[in-house]
Amino acid sequence: MKHNKSILKKTTVVDFKQDAAFFVDRGTRFLNRYDYEKALRSFRRAIELEPANAECHCHLASALAETGQFEASNDVLYEVIEKWDTSMSEVYFYMANNYANLEDYQMAEEMAVRYLQEDGNGPYREDAEDLLDYIYFELDMPPRHFQPSENEDVYSKHERARRSLEEGRFLEALDTLKEIVDNDPSFLPAWNNLSLAYYYAGDFQQSMKTIEKTLEMEQGNLHALCNLAVLLSHHNHTTELIALMDMLKKVVPFHPENTYKLATTMGVLGQHEEAYFHYQRILKAGRPHEACTYHYAAISAYLSGRKDQALRWWQKAKQMDPEAGVADQYIQMVKSEQEGETIKPIPYQYNPTQREVSWEQATFNGVEDFKTDPMIRASLLWALQHGRDEVKFAVLQTLSLIGDDEAETAVRQFYHSTDNEQLQKLALLALADMGAAMPLDAPNPVEKADASLQDVESVEEGIRLYLFEEGQEAAGNWCLQFWAEHQKYAVNHVQVRKSIAWVAALEYVYGAVSHQKKSQAYLAEKYGVSISTVAKCVKVLSKLDFK
């Protein structure tokens, strides 16, 4: 029997260098073959290897645009121009094309003009001019006045402000938007977002003034009219609202951005038939849409009695964003209703149906949710301006737990705006708890506490004087009852000189059992005692059953 012999050959080992350039080249080849999934994966790998390489980001943005993800492409491009290479003027042309594909011709115009301002003889000059010709002549849109490029970068700043609004950083958005309208009063998109920022920050008077200013400049500005309708609804100005709603119901916008704004406004105001009509127009336009658009459309369909259509749109949202799990819960909600369950009202928000977060019950475990939930942040700022004193106390505590720059700004502004000394003291304690610098005109909160809190003759007096006075009746009653139980069963009373320290410990224990936990550091600051003393008292109290 013959046996084949293996022939061994010498091989040369070649260094196979997989750097960012390799993955960019690979991604480009995949893109040319229309293999978008592998192209996106390759460009993202290139960015992982060289995160500061602006060219890699631009390749990713180009691939996203090729797949119809124009908004995601613009997000990447904004990051390029803001973070990686501010001199890359062609980014503005790329964004102009993305906005044109999104049929947001106002922003497309702004980006095209910005590109020509930055690089009038650039490689895309003719293309940018053609795009502007199309906007001005084909769409019959009059050219607008733009500031010279050497002035403030109004468009990038406006986009940052818009993102701040979406992420719940309303005070940050306010500062940016006010600066924009001061520098360029004719820039209407900033005026519209400024009115929203005032609204979410709880300053309804300024919101109304801003809307009125916008309508003075452009009487039929749809965004301003929609904002006005929401504000009138909030203030229960029924007569004016009905008249405005009758007018808005007759409007059929041409541009998708305006259609989306009107659809969402109608939905928020409970006009679900009209909301459904406009969302349906958006989805029939044939361009790519995000999962949240299908979700909002499904809500309008469901609330207008078209439950089969709602299910179809939620299925589409699930297909586009399976990891979010939002659509799954709404699909299950419809099935549960078919089985006889009562369904709660559905807000126009892209959130899970079972997610119920109350800022008034903030804990250290749940506070991360508050940092990223714009609606909770809006309710906090509103309550800090318009709530009862006991509610303001709870808000200050919650903001101290959040502890970011936005929270610090809100607390600092509140300190300067309120004339209530007790609330001023609590604002200072909140700033101290988040490690922020004290206002220049502020006394030391611990010294202030020492002067006013350590002289109580008994724990009961401290509870009545400080918990009940702050409006914390439930906490006060619980602490009085628990302290009585402690006195009854305590064998060896720990020697703590200051009665107020026991009040601090009782408030801490109450917060723990009622899911309104406050840090021992915060309470030590509030009552002017050391953290170790509070901890010692808490350890003693914890020997009893908190229930």
CATH homology superfamily of the largest domain: Tetratricopeptide repeat domain
What is the CA-based Rg, rounded? 30 Å
Shape: globular
> Unreliable segments (pLDDT under 50, ≥5 consecutive)?
1-16, 353-366, 445-454
Assign the CATH architecture of the largest domain.
Answer: Alpha Horseshoe
Give the N-to-C terminal Cα separation. Answer: 88 Å
**How is the main sheet built?**
none
Written as H for each helix and E for each strand, in order along the chain, the element string is: HHHHHHHHHHHHHHHHHHHHHHHHHHHHH
Mean model confidence by pLDDT: 76
- How many helical stretches? 29
**How many structural domains does the protein architecture include?**
4
Helix content: 55-70%
CATH topology of the largest domain: Serine Threonine Protein Phosphatase 5, Tetratricopeptide repeat
Organism: Brevibacillus centrosporus
Pfam families: TPR_11, TPR_8
TPR repeats: 20-53, 188-221
InterPro entries: TPR-like_helical_dom_sf, TPR_rpt, Ycf3
Descriptive account of the structure:
Keywords: Repeat, TPR repeat. InterPro entries: TPR-like_helical_dom_sf (IPR011990), TPR_rpt (IPR019734), Ycf3 (IPR050498). This is Tetratricopeptide repeat-containing protein. This protein is mostly helical and 547 residues long. The protein has four domains: 20-139, Alpha Horseshoe (Serine Threonine Protein Phosphatase 5, Tetratricopeptide repeat), CATH 1.25.40.10; 159-336, Serine Threonine Protein Phosphatase 5, Tetratricopeptide repeat (Alpha Horseshoe), CATH 1.25.40.10; 369-434, Leucine-rich Repeat Variant (Alpha Horseshoe); 459-542, Cyclin A, domain 1, CATH 1.10.472.10. It has 29 helices and no strands. Helix 8 (154-166) runs parallel beside helix 10, helix 10 runs parallel beside helix 12 (222-234) and helix 26 crosses helix 27 (499-513). Mean pLDDT is 76; it is low at 1-16, 353-366 and 445-454.
